[in-house]
Known about the structure:
The complex is a heterodimer.
Chain A lengths: L3 E10 L2 E11 L4 E5 L6 H9 L6 E6 L2 E2 L10 E4 L11 H11 L4 H14 L15 H14 L4 E5 L7 H18 L2 E6 L2 H7 L2 E6 L2 E6 L1 H6 L4 H6 L6 E11 L2 E5 L5 E4 L11 E6 L5 E3 L5 E9 L3 E7 L5 E7 L9 E5 L6 E3 L17
Parallel strand pairs in A: 3-8, 3-9, 6-7, 7-8
Antiparallel strand pairs in A: 1-2, 1-4, 4-5, 9-10, 11-12, 11-14, 12-13, 14-20, 15-19, 16-17, 16-19, 17-18
Chain B lengths: L1 H6 L3 H38 L1 E3 L7 E3 L3 H8 L1 H33 L5 H9 L6 H12 L6 H8 L7 H4 L1 H26 L3 H9 L4 H28 L4 H6 L11 H11 L3 H31 L1
Antiparallel strand pairs in B: 1-2
Amino acid sequence: MATVELKNLRKTYLTEEIIKGISLSIEEREFVVFVGPSGCGKSTLLRMIAGLEDITSGDLLIDGHRMNDVEPGKRGLAMVFQSYALYPHMNVYKNMEFGLKLSGMPEAERRAKIEHVARTLQLEPYLNHKPGQLSGGQRQRVAIGRAIVRNPKVFLFDEPLSNLDAALRGQMRVELSALHRKLGATTIYVTHDQVEAMTMADKIVVLQKGVVEQIGSPLELYHHPRNLFVARFIGSPPMNFFSAIFQGGDAAGSSVQLRDGSSLYVPVTSPGLLPGTKVTVGIRPEHVELASSGPNSGVVEVIERLGAITLVHVRMPDGEIIVVQTDGAALTDVDTRVSLTLPPHNCHLFAPDGLAFEACHRHPLAA
Amino acid sequence: MQAVLEHSPPAGATARTTKRTGFLLLSPSVLILLVWSIVPLVMTLWYSLQNYNLVDPTLHGFAGLDNYWYLLTDPDFLHSLLNTLVLVAGVLIISVGGGTLLAVLYDQEFFGRGIARIMVISPFFIMPTVSALLWKNLMLHPIYGVYSAMMRAVGLTPIDWLARFPLMTVMMIVAWEWLPFAVLILLTAVQSLDGEQREAARMDGAGPIARFRYIILPHLGRAISVVVMIETIYLLTIFAEISVTTAGGPGVASTNLAYLIYSRALLQFDVGGASAGGVVAIVIANIVAIFLVRAVARNLEA
Lengths: 367, 302
């Protein structure tokens, strides 16, 4: 297994810079997920690592060796594509055999290897089928099998589950995680789906417009987003934001004044910020609490009942909507007036430049 | 629901009525096409059994199979049959082989690709007589031709292609006309290849040649069989190029079956003999068609 290191990697198409200097190091056996909105450069970055796109500047090291100018087939990587990219005129066996054959592996060894992988992936009955005769999930497994037989140092996945239906996606997610644990291979996985990112990753890299916004474990991103973008991107339904005025802070926390005049003392540090500055308060829907009366009241506009949970959309007096996630059995009704409680330890504060205030206490799960 | 079902007319009756209307509406065109093809066929069959020579009206009447006998025992016939096969096979090899390579080449990014593509396709729009004349007079003419001038410029004696290698030269001209068609069809086929498949092959360690052999060529299989089928149908009846350049000569060196029939009917005025040749040509074309359609149909199903 292998380490991967990116040193100030850049990619320019004609005059436009797509990847703006990304540095990242990936440990052995780590499962790293690149996540971000479409057009953020995550697929381009993966393809640069794979060797399918040229690297404009910077260094790509795999196991300490510079790989910038090495052919994709010789980097010791295997990739699973979004469309699976199986060879349609070859059966499953030949699909898996193609790379091994080209590398000059003897026939008997190839057969043993393919049969072993087919057993692991429950593909044995389909070895003589053509890809066109398989279902989406089976094709996906063949694509993964084709990657595994080559025994690569690093697995690359480019949105591999986006063509599957929701139920199958959930199942494949679990299978992939189990497979990763079994093989222990270094893996780089690109997705725009934050559920995949949160559930599978050891380390998430959030990208936006070719820049790394934050690198960290899933719960670190959830509990301690570095800036507004990450806070908005991670978590579903997304975090609520509203503006407030910074009043002052000390070592134990900062106090802000909300629009309705009430003040909030959040346990985050605020070095060097002047009182009176406009800041943004963020709180996740699952942390807002509903009360029947009190300050911060608004009118319920929409209720989405998902069974286990209920999402209550509350219109505040200043016109903003705040989403509250409550119990599935909540009896709240549309058009009633409710009051919101904002537990300070779950609030995030963001400076005018979008950066988050440092929390005074790290969450135990996001150490 | 039950009531509705009971009151509506039986589905079978409706379908039958619709079918009958369809036949009625189709019949005029089917009839015209039938007459169009059957009448000439029957007339050809009839003439092929007659003594019918425009130069010698005294010789007439039923000939039995004499016309066929003369034709099949004529060495010219065998020669022209062979020439037909050589022409078809040669043009197919050049146009499909060259077309595949050019299609892969024109699929690459390079400067001026758009103009180059138009230029490679343009010979297809030139009519056969014109392109044959262009080659005969402008390019290959032993005195005025561009090729001859080029040869002389480097001190070599130009070859009189049409006199020395008549069949090969006709083949080259026809291949020049049909190569664009092959390129056109195969280029669209190459472009329909999924980009991720090529990339997957690159990740599997396949170089350009392995990618061509194992990914692109199998992908082109259907398109190639379509090109072969369409070209064969047209190539069996090459006429204009031969008529304009060599008139089938020297001797019968560049005479194919179509030209042989023409020369029998309109140069020797032997309508009976030409008709017999026509019938033989129909039989050969149908044999080829059966094999081709079968092969292609199997390829298209897979």
